[in-house]
Amino acid sequence: MDQQTSKKGLLVVSFGTSYAATRPRTLEAVENALRDAFPDRRFVRAWTSGMLRRKLERREGRKICSVDEALEQMAAEGITDVLVQPTHLLPGEEFQRTEEAVWACAGRFASLAMGRPLLSDETDAAALARIIEEAYPIGSGELLALMGHGSAAMVFPAYELLEEQFRRDGYPNICIGTVEFTPGIAPVLSCVRREKPERVHLAPMLLVVGDHALNDMSGDGPDSWKNQIIREGTEVVCHLTGLGEYEAVRALYVEHARRACSVTGEATV
User: Fold this and answer.
1) How far apart (Å, rounded) are the C-alpha atoms in residues 128 and 1?
2) Angle of CA points 164, 165, 168, to nearest 5°
3) Model-level pTM?
4) What is the arithmetic mean of pLDDT over 14-28?
5) Cβ atoms of residues 111 and 151 within 8 Å
6) 43 has which bridge partners?
7) Enzyme catalytic residues
8) Is the model's pLDDT at 152 over the cut of 90?
9) Are 256 and 115 in contact (CB under 8 A)?
10) CA-based, 20 to 30 A from 22: which of 15, 110, 137, 216?
């Protein structure tokens, strides 16, 4: 295909968020980093959560496409060369649905390539571990507990690899639990009971600061992670910084987009 005459597009796919206050510094910050990295491509966004798309349209009057709708729109605009980059953290259920939707549209574009989620292999685990270690310099007698999301379709041991990397890097005082699905908060509580730290730092290992971070992790309800840990007899400090706020995380997404795999057999990333 003649790259001089092809019309290029960039589709950034996210789960979505209903929290307008934190969206600019997290989700939209990642989108902007990708836009800046590929200035020759027409930017289009899509959210995989139908519930969040409908909520945003009711609240803000903004229409956000599904993956299918976004690809349909791009084809209608005459875009022939599409780069798709998800902002999903894991190759779980939401990413798999995105992948299926993209593959189903492969015949509509001369060139179609797709990047991987943030945490897709051991190299990603090592890079993300370093970012977290630098962001949270935990002292003696302290523990860092990270709230991951979890997935119903975890085909890749992302959390296990990340914890192994923490240990290799000399950070045995960092543990991970999930707000949804297995293993839940259990590994965090086990670590607190075993280590008996003076202080636990709670932080979201989530792209955005939304309901999970504000309520499930740091909320005042009896079942919040904060209060469950307080009942173990230790002080808790909550940090409300989404991964999308870190420039180094945004750079990882850009790198994944640059290494996107072709769906059509031809790609001009």
Assistant:
1) 36
2) 90
3) 0.94
4) 95
5) no
6) 10
7) 149
8) no
9) yes
10) 137
Give Cα 169 to chain centroid, integer Å: 23
Structural contact between residues 16 and 49, judged by C-beta atoms closer than 8 angstroms: yes
158-207 per-position pLDDT tens digit:
999 999 999 999 999 999 999 999 899 999 999 999 999 999 999 999 99
Amino acid at 229: I
Token pair belonging to 106: 């492969």
- Residue 209 and residue 241 in contact, taking contact as beta carbons nearer than 8 Å: yes
217 neighbors 211 (Cβ within 8 angstroms): no
- In this prediction, residue 4 carries a pLDDT of 47
Find, among 136, 137, 252, 115, the residue nearest to 204 by Cα. 136
**Residue (of 148, 149, 146, 147) closest to 171 by Cα position:** 146
